[in-house]
Amino acid sequence: MTTSSGLPFPLGVSVGNPNISDPDAEAEFDAANTQFASLMGAQPTFMNSSVDSSQLVTDWDSNVEWSATSAAASPTFQGKIPTIALPMSSTAAGSPSADQMYKNFANGTYDSILQSMVKSWADAGFMTQVWRPGVEMNLADSTSFAGSTAAEQADWVAAFKHIYTVLHSAAQADGVNMTVAWNPGIVNFSDIDNVTQTLYPGNAYVDTIGVDVYGDVFPYHDGSKIYDWDKSGQELNSPNPVYDTSLAQWDADPVNLEHYYTDPASSEYSLDDSGGSALSLQDIIDFAKTTGKPIAICETGAGNTLDDGSNLTDNPTFVQWLSSTLANAGVQIQYVGIWDSDLGGNYAFSAASDDKPQEAAAWAKYFGVQSAAATDPATAPASPPAADPPAATAHTLTLQMSEDAYKGDAAFTVAVNGQQVGGEYQTSALHSSDDANTFLLTGDWNSGVNDVAISFINDAYGGQGLDRNLYVNSIAYDGVTYAGTSASMPGDSTDNFSVGPGATTGTGPADNLTLTLSEDAWQGNADFVLYIDGKAVTTPQVVSALHEANATQGFSFSGNFGSGAHTIGIGFVNDAYGGSDSEDRNLYVNGVTLNGSDIFSGDQALYGNTTSDFAVTTSK
């Protein structure tokens, strides 16, 4: 479906990195981004960034602070959504092994670093963020490679789950709309068999399935003979194979290229996947359909003259094949992030000096605004005449959704101003666990008020406690969360919400509540429930910090309380006593902070199942 501005999919790009420390480098970055936007006929909505894996993990937060500050200083990065590649190991001297770092992530050693990185982007003004932990984890040369043993891969999955949880918790604390992508690479041979089954952490820990897919080609050959898929009828092990005698002859036939992209295991090593485990884009599309998750093409590029085995430098065939595959995918495509840079390979194309006129025209035709300047990739110029890029028109809609599950997950559709966005979505986050899945949608919607209609479409009921329900936890538009955008949907129905500037229910970022607690443990830890105005808003939460050791434990919660007076209640719910001071389970409230202001600081003890109440007033 083409957007009203002519873009077939929301657009992303990587043109290098802004550099606030070097005005010339910053200007070069902005010029490259403007050049890309001019060719495509529209500004990108998403901009790639990354955490520097060559630095010690203890330096990652300062590296990200610098990246975010540089992005904020760039006029062509401002207002975009950063898509941040997060490695899960470091190549710096003195770093732990990759597997040990996965264990450290999983046990919380790096939590404060993750939290600091989210806050750095938020402080720089980027209130919608896409994070890609463990990017290209199925490639052995990746700094996130999940390992070759089952134990290492289990450690990687545990780390990803914890990172997902911490990123979302940090986002709530900072008022950020967070999307976390699970992001393998499409390759001839994955270094991990059955990537989707082995490394997928489960729907509850994935918001988007991201993929990196490039047009590099390493065709199958027998000595100097290269198997020609077109002349051999594209049959494996043909009894009368036909071979080409040069790479130029082979890659001049688009049929060979398209077969290779569709079936990447037809590589230099084999005609099928008998020599290894391949991962194709269609594999990911099919997997996304089973999970109900959208797809993001986080990175894509063609014509890599450094590493492309076919030496195909100007490659419009890959671009056209990718466009056709995505158009017929049958799943929501959140964005397509195009690599227009020579960092990591010669993928730049938008400048005439890149010498890729056919490829540049193909990107403009199939992924840019439809225009007369890009009608024929064989004849169109590398870029249209220089012009000021048009203002960005895309807006973002962020849904936080949860469910009561029964015989499957809750499914829903979304319409904005009467037009359906994407297909069917499913949420797997349990409302009873105070959890939510994030759905990030983009479109050319109104700069003012918009109507968002969410339709629950697969209600099911089997008796008491056997009920499938849908919950809308919140809706944000362009980074602003609006009040009045929560709902419980117990049956198939449609709820409408107003969002966008001018909506009477608009609010700023959520209220942020932090509790500092401790316990006396006996036969188990103390549990508490948070109440707002007498209503329980959490399931029982476990406190494990021991009061006698002067230890405390922090808990952060976010929500729009609404302006006026409110009561925060901390309820001790599992008191236990064995007859002596040493056989007594108790809860202690050591601090309560709301929106940065201290409400209580001290040592309030709850010796039985009771609730401590604190009166607050908010002006939001």
UniProtKB/TrEMBL annotation:
Residues 2-361 form the GH26 domain. The keyword rRNA-binding does not apply. Gene3D superfamilies: 2.60.60.40, Glycosidases (3.20.20.80). GO terms for molecular function: hydrolase activity, hydrolyzing O-glycosyl compounds. The active site is at E136 (proton donor), E299 (nucleophile). SUPFAM superfamilies: (Trans)glycosidases (SSF51445). Keywords: Glycosidase, Hydrolase. It comes from the Bacteria. Pfam families: CBM60. PROSITE patterns: GH26. The keyword Hydrolase applies. Belongs to the glycosyl hydrolase 26 family. This is GH26 domain-containing protein.
